[in-house]
Amino acid sequence: MRQLRNRIFDSEVQAWGALPRLLRWLTFLWLFVGLAILFSASYPSANAEFGDGLYYFKRQLIWVAVGLVVFNFVVHRPLDGILRQAPVGTIVLLVAIWLTFIPGLGTNVNGATRWLAIGSIPIQPSELIKPFLILQGARLFGQWERWSWRIRLRWLCVFAAVLLGILLQPNLSTTALCGMTLWLVALGAGLPYRYLGTTAVSGLLLALVSISFKEYQRRRVMSFLNPWADRFGDGYQLIQSLLAVGSGGPLGTGFGRSQQKLLYLPIQFTDFIFAVFAEEFGFVGSMSLMLLLLTYASLGLLVALQSRQKVHQLVAIGATILLVGQSILNIGVATGVLPTTGLPLPLFSYGGSSMISSLITAALLIRVARENTSGNVVALPHQHRQQQSSS
Fold first, then answer.
1. Quick one: which of 79, 128, 166, 232 has the fewest CB in 10 Å?
2. DSSP tag of 185
3. How wide is the angle at C-alpha 119 spanned by C-alphas 113 and 122, nearest 5°?
4. pTM to 2 decimals?
5. How does residue 213 score in pLDDT terms, banded at 50, 70 and 90?
6. How far apart, in whole angstroms, are the C-alpha atoms of residue 241 and residue 304?
7. Sign of the four-CA dihedral 20, 21, 24, 29
8. Could you give phi then psi for residue 114, rounded to 5 degrees?
9. pLDDT tens-place string over residues 243-271
10. Which residues pair with 123 in a beta bridge?
11. Tens digit of pLDDT for each residue in 216-225?
12. Rounded to whole angstroms, how far apart are CA atoms 234 and 221?
């Protein structure tokens, strides 16, 4: 507990600039609210399944502790050093994604094989690879003109293998999120529009092909358009989510007083945790959360604009897109604006891999802010020469 407290109340933070300090405390506020609503949302299910209402909450605290250790490591390590490790991390997790298809290694849950079991600990490589995609995407696209076509094609093939592996699990939503994040990082890097246009069209066609061959994905789209057409089948989850959101009213039912979480709303502490939050805190609470996301996005954009190195700028852009963009997509699903997907709400939803990935991503954004807006961070060696030699 003392070590965890030191990760939060770090005496060195006082020497940081105002922007990284603000981002750090906003991250902890986001995390604290997420833990509170996870406690509320998961209690009925945990009590019914395990006879212990704190079952999921206690395990989430363990993952938070692990995530904060990594978070603390990242915000105190020079970004150039982290970037040099990005190729290794990307390749290792790419291999882990494809290992999920091997019987006995991959764990199948609800028809999807997305987890590897390390002893009794499940990990989800498709979640853990997200910050590494940001880092490696920033390295590749931020120095596009410096790389030979051989290196460019090598890493584009790696990215394609990552997306294909996630798609085949199957996990269309995470594939789309990772693909869009890489595409937006490339857009921010100023890649030629002919490359970007071709990639965008190819991604859209791949999504249409996946939907055409996967019946459950087609049903999700149809139930999103009219959930009441199959209110006890494919539309049930969305209808219960809408009932929860609508029941919140202006001020909500109060913390811990959600009715839909009482085993009416499926997966209420993972993908649909926002519905419980909206029911308990109402319109005012939901708008407050949206304000926090807007503030976070604005600060992330400010960090990118103030970055002195292009690669650092792209890391800030990718981290902001991943955290805020995924949150908006999750909320859009819970409110019926978007088709039902399996994306967790960062720092809210239950899941160790998602929690660690989100904290690493937040730490990368804070690290960029430290190196570009804080006067006490020593200037780093020339990045391009080191990265060229490392690849």
1. 232
2. H
3. 40
4. 0.90
5. confident
6. 35
7. negative
8. -120, -5
9. 999 999 999 999 999 999 998 998 899 99
10. 116
11. 767 777 777 7
12. 10
